[in-house]
Design brief:
Strands 3, 4, 5, 6, 7, 8, 9 and 10 form an eight-stranded antiparallel β-sheet that branches. Strands 1-2 form a two-stranded antiparallel sheet. The longest helix has 54 residues. With 266 residues, it is an alpha+beta fold. The chain is elongated, with a radius of gyration of 39 Å. The protein is 36% helix and 24% strand. A hairpin with a 5-residue loop joins strand 1 and strand 2. It has one domain. It is found in: Cell inner membrane.
């Protein structure tokens, strides 16, 4: 009599497989959400870093230009003069020293600059529906004393700017003013205004960073004339007097030696 031995086969049931698949799906969904969060955070940090870099570069350019501020008024092309620094509540224009001429343009080391808010054209912006705000623009003139047809060269520094506010500290009245030269300035339009404020306050309102405020101390520039000539003339007169005294001493010494020689011969 033969007995058939039936081996019992072991395996997973359908319910166990479904439970495992559900757990794998939950872990996969959580991992994907975590990776997506990491990627979005990384992109946001890159955008913030780029905005901070642009803002730092813009502030560096403004600080570098204001450090080279000089009291040099310019002609405006209409038989008048623009002050060495002319500023309103949302625009400032001034003359700076030491402007690098890397392109070899026919100009000197002095350069006329201005900072203001501008807006990009729809053709340049690609017709974007969303309003990206204004631009902080640095404009420069190729010539110092302008002609009626002189146009500035605009250079955008910082995008996403909503507003620009400027104030100027007057050391005489010890007050912040919204324009420069002050209204009480006695200098007319036909004369050159070279007086400068002591400090400039800049307030930028951007889409991403909110309100940004900074105060730039301005160099003290004094306009003098004829100081060196007076000193040099005085030095020449003193040297002339010393020369006359020396010649007199030499004459007296020679006369004394001749008298001594005559006495010895006698």
């Amino acid at each position: 009599m033969r007995f058939s031995l039936c081996r019992r086969q072991s395996g997973f049931t359908l319910i166990e497989i479904l439970v495992v698949l559900m757990l794998v799906a939950i872990i996969s969904i959580g991992s994907f959400a975590l990776l997506d969060t990491f990627n979005s955070t990384d992109r946001e940090l890159e955008v913030r870093a780029e905005e901070l870099r642009r803002f730092s570069m813009a502030m560096y350019r403004i600080d570098d230009d204001l450090r080279q501020l000089t009291a040099r008024a310019v002609k405006n092309g209409y038989n008048g003069y623009e002050p060495a620094l002319r500023g309103d509540a949302d625009e400032v224009e001034f003359t700076r020293l030491g402007a690098a001429n890397l392109t070899g343009e026919p100009r000197g080391e002095l350069q006329r600059l201005s900072y203001s808010i501008g807006f990009a054209d729809e053709a340049q912006s690609g017709g974007a529906e969303e309003d990206s705000g204004g631009l902080l623009i640095r404009s420069r003139w190729r010539v110092l004393d302008r002609a009626p047809d002189s146009e500035p060269v605009a250079e955008p520094l910082l995008p996403g700017v909503d507003s620009l506010s400027l104030r100027y500290y007057d050391p005489d009245t010890e007050a912040w003013l919204s324009q420069w030269p002050p209204v009480t300035s006695r200098t007319g339009t036909a004369a050159a205004e070279t007086r400068l404020p002591q400090a400039l306050e800049l307030v930028l309102v951007t889409r991403s960073g909110g309100e940004l405020r900074r105060v730039f101390p301005l160099p003290r520039v004094s306009v003098t004339a004829g100081g060196g000539n007076g000193n040099s003339a005085g030095g020449d007169e003193q040297e002339g007097d010393d020369g006359q005294h020396e010649s007199r001493d030499e004459t007296e010494d020679s006369d004394g030696s001749e008298e001594r020689g005559g006495r010895d011969s006698e």
